[in-house]
Amino acid sequence: MNNFRIKLSLFLNYFVFAILLNSVGTVILLVQTYFSVNKQEASYLDPFKDISIAIASFIVGAFISRIGYKKSMLMALMAVAISCFIIPSVKFFIAIKLLAAVAGFSFGLIKVSVFGAIGLVTHSEKEHLSLMNFIESFFMVGVLSGYYLFAAFSKHPETGDWFNTYYVIGALAVIAFLILFSATLDESVIKNSKPVSAGSELAAMLRLAVVPLVLSFVGCAFFYVLIEQSTMNWIPTFNKDVLKLTEQLAIIMGSILSASIALGRFCAGIVLRRISWFYVLTGCLLGASAVLFVSLYLANNEITGLPVSAFAEIPAVAFVFPLIGIFLAPIYPAINSVILASLPKAKHGAMSGLIVVFSAIGGTLGSVITGFLFDKVGGIKAFYFSFVPITLLCVFVYFFYRQQKKVTSGKIEINTSAAH
Fold first, then answer.
1. Is 308 helix (H, G, I), strand (E, B) or coil?
2. 12 in Cβ contact with 61 (< 8 Å)
3. Could you tell me which residues come within 8 angstroms of residue 337 by beta carbon, excluding any fewer than 6 positions away?
4. 18 Cβ partners below 8 Å, 6+ apart?
5. 3-class DSSP state of 213
6. pLDDT of 102-122, one tens digit each?
7. Cβ–Cβ under 8 Å, residues 64 and 349
8. How many domains is the chain built from?
9. For residue 234, what are the domain limits?
C-alpha cells in the first residue's frame, strides 16, 4: 500500500474543508454587511453546518464499514466542489445556509473517514498520536489560508466580490478528489469483519456511547469544541465591533488564532512523544485561562473606541487574544487519538462518528450562545463566559485520564459487540 499518497490525500482533504468550514466566522461578519442581518441571525450559519456534520457522522459512523473510507471521502469532495461552483451565481442568504449544510454533511463523511484511515496507516499509539496532531495542525494551516483568501476578496464586502472565493475552494476540492482517486487504501480490516444487520451496527455504536471511557471523552470533546468554535467564529466580529478594526483588518487579525493553533498542534506532535498527554493538556488549559484573562483585561482597559484603519494602530489585545490558540491546540487531537488508540481498529469508524457528532453539537452551542451574548451584553462580557466551559473541560479531562488508565492497565475491558 502506498501510504505516502493516501497520507497526502488525508492532509489535503482536511486542508480543503478547513478553509470552507472555518470561514464561517469570516462569513458571519461578511453577511452582516452584505445581507444586513443582525448578529443572532448570522450566528445560525453555524447550526446549519454543525447539525449537518452531526447527522452525517451519526449515519456514517454506524455504517462506514459498508460504505468504505475512500468512497465516503470521494463523495464528500464531489458534493463540495459542485456546491462551491454554484454558490457565486446564487447570492442569497438561504444559499449560504444551504452551502454550510452541504459542507457540514460532507465534512461528516470526511472526518469519520480520515480518523478511521489514520488507524489503518499507523502501527502504534505514539505514531497514531503524532500523525493525528500533524494532520490537525495542517487543518489549521487551511484555516489560516482561508482568512487570507477571503480577505483578498473582501475589500468591499457590500459588492459581494467575496463570493468568488468559492471558485478557488471548488478548484481545490477537485484537485483533492483526483489525488484521492489515484491513491490506494487497504480497508480489509474493516470490510472483512463478520457482516451484521444495519440495526445491529447502530446498536453497537450506541452501546459504545455509554462506555465510561467514551462518556468522559464525549464531555472533553463537547466542551473543547464549544470553546474553540465560539472563539474562532466570533474573533473577526470581536475585532470589528469591540476593537473597531476595519472588516479587512478584522479578518486578517483573526487569522492569528489559526496560526497559533497550527503552531500549537505542530509542537504538540513533538512534545507528546515524550510527555504524558494528561500533563500536557492540564498545562494547556491553565495557559488558555491565563491568556483569556489578560486579553479581557486589556480589552476593558486599553480600548479607546476610535476606528482603527492602519496596522500600526491595532491595539495589543488583537495580538494577545488569538494566542489562546497555542494552548487550546493540542487538546482536541490528543483526546481523539487517545480514545481511538484505546479501541480496536474495527471500532474506529463508529467512535469517529461519535467524536464528530458531539463535537458538532458543542460547536453549534458555542457559536449560537456567543452570538446571543454579543447582542445582549457586548463582546467583552460574552467572552467572560468562556471560563465556564474551560473549568468543566478540566474536570472531564481528569475523569477521561482516570478511565483511560483503567483500560490500558486491563482493569476494565471494552465490549460493545452486537448480539447476533
1. strand
2. no
3. 125, 128, 129, 132, 133
4. 138, 139, 140, 141, 142, 143, 145, 146
5. helix
6. 998 898 889 888 888 888 887
7. yes
8. 1
9. 8-186+198-408
Q: 489549521: which residue's cell? A: 140
Q: Is residue 192 part of a domain?
A: no
Q: For residues 297 and 44, give the distance between their C-alpha atoms in angstroms, rounded to a whole number.
A: 29
Cell of 232: 474562532
pTM: 0.71
261, 225 contact by CB (below 8 A) = no
Highest mean pLDDT among 55-59, 269-273, 290-294, 371-375: 290-294
Q: Which residues pair with 308 in a beta bridge?
A: 245
Q: Does residue 205 fall inside a structural domain?
A: yes
pLDDT tens digits for 142-178? 888 887 888 888 777 777 788 899 999 999 999 999 9
On whether residue 250 sits in a domain, the answer given is yes
Q: Does the structure show a pLDDT above 50 at 420?
A: no
User: 411: which 3 cell numbers?
Assistant: 482493569
CATH no. for residue 211? 1.20.1250.20
Whole-number Cα distances in Å, 72 to 105, 169, 201: 11, 19, 17
Look at the block and give the residue holding cell 482516570.
Answer: 402
Render 230-257 in DSSP notation, one character per residue.
HHHHHHHHHHHHTS-B-HHHHHHHHHHH
- Answer yes or no: is 82 within a domain: yes
